[in-house]
Amino acid sequence: MLTIKHQSTIEKAVKANHERAFYSQYPEHPKAYGEQAPEEGHNRFKAQLNTPFSQLLQSGESGWAGEEVSPYTMEPLGITYPLFTADDLVEKAVAAAPQWRNTTVDIRADILVETLERIQSYFFDIAYATMHTTGQSFMMSFQASGPHANDRALEAIAMGYHELNRYPAEQLWEKPMGKFALQLKKNFRAMPKGPGLVIGCSTFPVWNSLPGIYADLVTGNPVIVKPHPRAILPIAIAVSAIQQVLQEKGFNPNLCQLAADTSATPITKTLCEHPGIKLIDYTGGSQFGNYVESLPGKSVFTEKAGVNSVILDSVTDIDAVMQNLAFSVSLYSGQMCTAPQNFFIPAGGIQTPNGTLSFDEVVEKFKNAVTALVTNPKMGAGTLGALQNDTTLQRAHNAGKLGAKVILEGQPLVNEEFTHARGFTPAILQVDSADRHIFEQELFGPVLLLVKTKDTDESIQLARQMAQQHGAITCAAYAISPDTKEKITEAMNSVFTPVSFNFTGFIWVNQHAAFSDFHVTGGNPAGNASFTNPEFILRRFVWVGNREVTGS
Amino acid sequence: MLTIKHQSTIEKAVKANHERAFYSQYPEHPKAYGEQAPEEGHNRFKAQLNTPFSQLLQSGESGWAGEEVSPYTMEPLGITYPLFTADDLVEKAVAAAPQWRNTTVDIRADILVETLERIQSYFFDIAYATMHTTGQSFMMSFQASGPHANDRALEAIAMGYHELNRYPAEQLWEKPMGKFALQLKKNFRAMPKGPGLVIGCSTFPVWNSLPGIYADLVTGNPVIVKPHPRAILPIAIAVSAIQQVLQEKGFNPNLCQLAADTSATPITKTLCEHPGIKLIDYTGGSQFGNYVESLPGKSVFTEKAGVNSVILDSVTDIDAVMQNLAFSVSLYSGQMCTAPQNFFIPAGGIQTPNGTLSFDEVVEKFKNAVTALVTNPKMGAGTLGALQNDTTLQRAHNAGKLGAKVILEGQPLVNEEFTHARGFTPAILQVDSADRHIFEQELFGPVLLLVKTKDTDESIQLARQMAQQHGAITCAAYAISPDTKEKITEAMNSVFTPVSFNFTGFIWVNQHAAFSDFHVTGGNPAGNASFTNPEFILRRFVWVGNREVTGS
């Protein structure tokens, strides 16, 4: 193996991928990036507004368009992006492919880590871009689209580096045959399947796209990045940074192309069905996701919708639990794929060290915890952020019409910094375990359901069924008895859903840490991808072994 | 990790899987297994004839049936097997699953190696059973269904052991937060997706089934083994050996069930479509294989039909090449999935150290080499074996009607030991590169096509197209110039087909060695499985990670 600039970074990441202890290459605190960085990033973001995004190293566009609107100011960003036809994008990807394919994985990984360093220099530009397209708070925008996304990208690079170095490039095969030995020279090549297509979503335009982009690139595939038309800027900055480095290193920047489109004339299906596209990463709604998964001849990686559950059985500190859950449901107004939606609470209440807390008392405590958080002027707006789009706002508005008992009505969120922000506080509804038609739908956004069950066994059974039939990315559970914990683990793991037990304090079920937590296990209807299990890398290339008689 | 009986065997196999040099756990020479073993095996095989196969540890059968006929004697074996309904088989598999799933992979791997040792004690029983169901020669029957199959099974066990030990079962995750650290206890569980179904074929009933059986079992899945109704006995003996060991070790023998059926009332589709079946391994024709691959909600591993090519450009020793190819096409009468079918030869002939050999001279030499082999009383019948079924015989009979120029007519094979054997010598046909409709079909059995091309570039182009459109498992090429070799490698590898260069002597393109050669790369229409790349294991289970606040 060659000595490469970022070898130590890559090797530490490979080790972290396997140890699954805490590891991070990119500090999550903004202060780690220098005093000037935030303001410089903000200034560049402001300068970008109302101008064409001209930093891409792509040419031959058929037009320019853009339709992003800030969920905080409700004003258009006024940025336009170059548009390309699907044929043009695929042709350029194919043309760029051979040089990259024939570069060793060590060199590819090295260059890709260099692109992450370049993206790092734009972390604050990306943060403001994320905030004003997704509605995430500034802090979440910075962390999710910056260091956390880069860590997930490094995870994919490291897994690729590890897997493509799994077998020797060349090997002598010598079979003893008594008086002589048969000899063959063999070589093993990891042939990329691509080009790849990465389809982004409007809520996590960078975090959900970088893993697929880097998984494609490290395995030797060119990649076409198709962002959601309402959240282009954050990933456009990242793609532009990747293109800069590729060009500086003597590679064709078309190895990573941006494929912006508009709501009026979308190109996603055309790209998906293009015979040249062989790999598709998709984040978004289940209906389109199921379509993508059904396409013949494509290797597909999806993260779709799910219904995440919380099972409440027994706790040691009810107030700490309620504060933790109130934060989990409020964080980015329930617009995270990991946000809990259904809270299963036994009709007989839950156990605490001070005796049983009745169902109604639990409901009251939950309501109070959410209310305290969202009305706290220092916490509310900063935690809830803004709603990315009107559909989510309407869903929150209409939560009272679902047929459930309304425990807490949602209402327009007061945001003193952005008075026009699209914000709405969480609605809390109560239903019975028989009201499946209500709680088995994904109610994306600030709507949560407290489900009164017969007992914890019914809670487990329902949470399991939801995951099996509708998918789940997470499950939180509060239980003291080892038997109950084991029962919950067995039931949820059997439908390939991870369980987080007894979270209180500064750790929330919504968070999946790079290098340690698999994100979307791939075993239930919530999706078939996982950041980053080995398959996320292996399904993007094919091992081919050639043989030759020695001396020939 | 525990110390287990077969730890050293497993660890050596893991190392071999990764080094991909020559490795074998089970010697391929019959003499390695003791002087008495062949006769004892033969006697047990003869004693089994015309009796029910009662060694299985399965009960509750709905009837008994069997329809095997020896391709050597053309007489029914007269053996019957217990029949079970699909529901019954799946129910029993599900019931057996939890204990096995909750056993560590180390213990599972140890027990599974023990089952291979048990199978080894039946190598000769299986050899005679294979010979008299498939029509393979005795030596091929012994090697393919015995040591080679066991080596492939060990390869799968070792890959499973390696992959399921990739992550720690438990890990402490500690995130520094300035003045304190967040701590989570995490555990990572490999949750099996099964039950699995392994569908066998009539030509390689053991070699093609053991890898899927062992890949399912090592990853914690119960498996149902559905052999071809005309080749049940060889795998029935193996399944029975596996059941014996499972029971001895305190496990439910239903973890590995035989699901015999009949041509008149097949149960394969019912099993495939059973909602309880989650994993399917399939070997056989492309039409059924494509159906299996299309089933929603199943993880599928296939080996289907392909059209394997030989590209002839230039040689150093034409006679050595022709002897090698004559053996390759004659071995088991072209009934191997790796057998070459289409020979692309430039109209201008091929280069040798003694000048150009014209197209017609090449054809003549090929014809003579095949004739010399098949008419050699010491070689012919032993190499060609017998034809498994009448469809293959009819195809060989009718080769002259395909519309090609007949270079060598096939004819009934003389077999002095088995005078009634279903045998037919290879037919050699000649076509032009324009006659795609003839050479783009898989002509399974003793039929080969010499295709006259414009030049080597056209040969490469056609071989590439055949692989891309119809699938290919192997490609042989004869070329001296490094540029030509590189061109062939690039073209064939780009459609995920391995190339074997300049094979002469005791090595043939048909052979794929365990621990070194991937078998079916998974990248073209010939199938999506590969013995044994990591995906062959990884797609059978899901990593699920659970988290818990420490001290809770």
Largest interface: A-B, 63 and 63 residues
Shape of chain A: globular
Task: Please identify, by name, the CATH architecture of the largest domain in chain A.
Answer: 3-Layer(aba) Sandwich
CATH names the topology of the largest domain in chain A as Aldehyde Dehydrogenase, Chain A, domain 1
Tell me the structural class of chain A. Answer: alpha/beta
Report how far the terminal alpha carbons of chain A are from each other: 27 Å
Uncertain spans of chain A: none
Based on CA atoms alone, the radius of gyration of chain A comes out at: 25 Å
The residue fraction in helices of chain A comes out at 25-40%
How many strands in all of chain A?
A: 19
Number of domains of chain A: 2
The proportion of strand residues of chain A reads: 15-25%
Strand ordering within the main sheet of chain A: 14-15-16-11-10-17-18
What is the residue-mean pLDDT of chain A, rounded to a whole number? 96
CATH domain class of the largest domain in chain A: Alpha Beta
Q: Report the major sheet of chain A.
A: 7 strands, mixed
Oligomer classification? homodimer
Question: What is the CATH superfamily label of the largest domain in chain A?
Answer: Aldehyde Dehydrogenase, Chain A, domain 1
Number of helices of chain A: 19
